[in-house]
Specification:
Strand content: 5-15%
Structural class: alpha/beta
Distance between the termini: 16 Å
Order of helices and strands: HEEEHEHEHEHEH
Strand order of the largest sheet: 4-1-5-6-7
Helix content: 40-55%
Shape: globular
Largest sheet: 5 strands, parallel
């Protein structure tokens, strides 16, 4: 992010780390990561990769490292963050010799696509494979099975962003 442009975001690294750790604490060891956006892989600012998907991938890698688990590159899927990306990722995932025991999708839409594709193949969530999403969108509660997801405080983000905007318009210094 450009430091001259104020923005309000959660700590994506920590949130993703916590989601991955949750799966690890529940005995999962082969955790697929869905939603790496390949368009962001070359997106840099001041020499650093940026974007929420990149930050979320960083948290995933950090948790695996803490638990002494090497990142299995075959479990990283660069299909994007959409419902259809989740379906595409699972189709590729099902071609692996050994399936993961969990999926961490970097967006709820991607998680729901993954659950949909798993169900089409007769795999049950969470009995056969665990799935965790990210964003806590309304659809994640409505989908069956409901999606375990990492929430974002949308109201607080919105009100803080508006306060920062009003401060900027009125000439108050950013803090």
């Amino acid at each position: 992010a450009d430091p001259e442009i104020p923005c309000v975001v959660i700590d994506n690294v920590r949130a993703s780390y916590e989601a991955t750790r949750y799966l690890l604490e529940n005995g999962k060891r082969r955790i697929a990561l869905l939603g790496i956006d390949s368009r962001l892989l070359d997106n840099t600012f001041q020499g650093k990769r940026v974007g929420s998907a990149v930050l979320r991938e960083t948290g995933y890698r950090k948790a695996l490292k803490e638990y002494g688990i090497a990142v299995d590159e075959s479990l990283l899927f660069q299909e994007g963050l959409t419902f259809k990306a989740g379906i595409r990722s699972v189709k590729r995932l099902l071609m692996l010799k050994q399936l993961p025991d969990a999926i961490f999708a970097l967006a709820d839409a991607c998680a729901i696509g993954a659950i949909h594709a798993l169900a089409e193949q007769g795999l049950r969530v969470p009995e056969d494979i665990s799935v965790v999403g990210f964003d806590n969108t309304a659809i994640s509660e409505m989908y069956l099975p409901s999606v375990t997801t990492i929430g974002q405080p949308q109201y607080e983000i919105g009100t803080t962003a508006m306060r920062l905007l009003f401060d900027r318009i009125s000439g108050k210094p950013a803090h």
